[in-house]
Request: fold
Amino acid sequence: MFKYNRTRFHYIGMFFLFLQVLGVCYARFVPERFFAWAPYDEQTHYHIQVLIDEKPLSDEEVTKRYRVTSQRVESRTIHNIFSIIEQYESTYGSEDWAKVLVTYDTNGKGEQLWQYPRE
Reply:
């Protein structure tokens, strides 16, 4: 019969717990923080503006392009929005040569600008 080996299961459990703690610690120091296991303590008001061939896209066109609302409050880190834009522009939109400008304000600390492509 199968003999239950308690120490082996304890080591396996401790190993998985260690991997989770390691992942949480890593996530606390990267901008995306997808696996940080912490409450999102940021509120970022942002507005995305896109120019293609010097023609600005409407808010509806921007929303359709990136599948995120062109202006709203993001309760997670703003780097998630940057990541979505960079991913789209480096793949599907690579032939459009779009210029993207995101104005954002995180927790009332003042307006900042982010642009794609980065200069």
Residues 1-38 form one domain. The radius of gyration is 21 Å. The longest strand covers residues 44-52. Helices lie at 6-27, 59-66, 79-90.
